[in-house]
């Protein structure tokens, strides 16, 4: 395979989830899975399903969970440029859902294969055709070596390649003070920042997300504030665009933000304007919640176009 145009790297996990609402993780109960997961794997798999050349750098164990992830990449056309580690097991995330909309995660990650990613995994030649690199805060936080790999990936990009950054802050992984310091190099390099609600204010120290997004936009960034079912808001220079979401029946919200980020990447690479790109990304994110499992709802272009046509024009 030729070097991909869109690259991401980081945690490769399977997700095992509670079947029913309000089943906490501190007592016996029912689970379903494994489902392929991990924020950047969800992102890159969606990019591939949407038809763009996609590559991923990470690690899995030589076990059934690792095969679950690699089989999904192979099926959807993601080039895997990582490693299979016989001395480590594949990472796992256990998740419970609650009726108020909250989730609780337990991660087996840092000491699993996913936590072994380091800068030596990156082949400079693999980046020679890259047009886009996507990073997340989770992968800056898990280990120092993972963080070094992310920073090295930015350094290996050819001139003109864009970087998108999704803070994706996990309070289970690191503190607010730590994430600000760790994210600073990625935010400074990023062309596109894709915060969820609360993250722009937290990372910038601003009083509101709107103020934080405007601060980044004034620095030349395109900022896309993800707002869940409500859609998103795009800040670019003086522009402030509110783009509504799509009406769908939610089955599982996990991974919707990562799919949204993939949709925005693909739309920008397709040459769409900011409003059109945000609408396309909203449709991708909406379809992502319609199936159980964080990657299961990742749509094709045809499914995205059908939703957009059904709810207000192509």
Question: Layout of helices and strands, plus pairs?
Answer:
Blueprint: E1 6-9, E2 13-18, E3 31-37, H1 39-49, E4 54-57, E5 59-61, H2 64-76, E6 78-80, E7 83-85, E8 91-97, E9 103-108, E10 132-136, H3 137-141, H4 144-156, E11 162-166, H5 176-189, E12 192-193, H6 199-204, H7 209-218, E13 222-226, E14 231-236, E15 239-244, H8 256-269, H9 274-288, H10 301-310
Parallel strand pairs: 1-4, 1-10, 2-8, 4-6, 5-7, 10-11, 11-12, 12-13
Antiparallel strand pairs: 2-3, 8-9, 13-14, 14-15
What does this entry look like structurally?
This protein is of the alpha/beta class and 314 residues long. It has one domain (6-310): Ribokinase (UDP-N-acetylmuramoyl-L-alanine:D-glutamate ligase), CATH 3.40.1190.20. The protein has helices at residues 39-49, 64-76, 137-141, 144-156, 176-189, 199-204, 209-218, 256-269, 274-288, 301-310; strands at 6-9, 13-18, 31-37, 54-57, 59-61, 78-80, 83-85, 91-97, 103-108, 132-136, 162-166, 192-193, 222-226, 231-236, 239-244. It has a 9-stranded mixed sheet with strand order 6-4-1-10-11-12-13-14-15, sandwiched between helices.
Give a brief outline of the structure:
With 314 residues, this protein is an alpha/beta fold. Helix content is 35%, strand content 23%. It has a single domain (6-310), classed as 3-Layer(aba) Sandwich (UDP-N-acetylmuramoyl-L-alanine:D-glutamate ligase).
Features:
single chain; about 325 residues; alpha/beta; UDP-N-acetylmuramoyl-L-alanine:D-glutamate ligase; 9-stranded mixed β-sheet; 4-stranded mixed β-sheet; 10 helices; about 25% strand; globular
């Amino acid at each position: 395979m030729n070097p991909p145009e869109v690259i991401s790297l980081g945690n490769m996990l399977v997700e095992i989830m509670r079947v029913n609402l309000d089943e906490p993780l501190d007592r016996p109960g029912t689970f379903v899975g494994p489902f392929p997961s991990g924020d950047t794997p969800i992102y890159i798999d969606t990019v591939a399903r949407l038809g763009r050349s996609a590559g991923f750098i990470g690690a899995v164990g030589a076990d059934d969970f690792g095969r679950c992830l690699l089989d999904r990449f192979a099926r959807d056309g993601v080039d895997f440029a990582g490693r299979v580690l016989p001395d480590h097991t594949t990472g796992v995330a256990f998740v419970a859902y609650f009726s108020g909309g909250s989730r609780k995660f337990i991660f087996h990650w840092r000491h699993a294969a996913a936590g072994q990613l380091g800068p030596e995994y990156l082949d400079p030649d693999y980046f020679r055709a890259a047009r886009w690199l996507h990073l997340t805060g989770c992968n800056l936080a898990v280990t120092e070596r993972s963080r070094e790999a992310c920073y090295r990936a930015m350094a290996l990009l050819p001139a003109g390649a864009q970087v998108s950054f999704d803070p994706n802050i996990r309070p289970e992984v690191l503190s607010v003070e730590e994430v600000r310091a760790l994210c600073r190099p990625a935010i400074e390099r990023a062309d596109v920042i894709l915060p969820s609600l609360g993250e722009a204010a937290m990372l910038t120290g601003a009083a509101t997300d709107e103020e934080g997004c405007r601060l980044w936009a004034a620095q030349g960034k395109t900022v896309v504030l993800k707002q869940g079912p409500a859609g998103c808001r795009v800040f670019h220079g003086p522009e402030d665009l509110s783009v509504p979401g799509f009406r769908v029946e939610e089955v599982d919200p996990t991974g919707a933000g990562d799919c949204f980020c993939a949709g925005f990447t693909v739309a920008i690479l397709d040459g769409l304007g900011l409003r059109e790109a945000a609408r396309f990304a909203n449709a991708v994110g909406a379809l992502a919640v319609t199936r159980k499992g964080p990657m299961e709802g990742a749509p094709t272009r045809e499914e995205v176009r059908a939703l957009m046509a059904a709810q207000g024009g192509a």
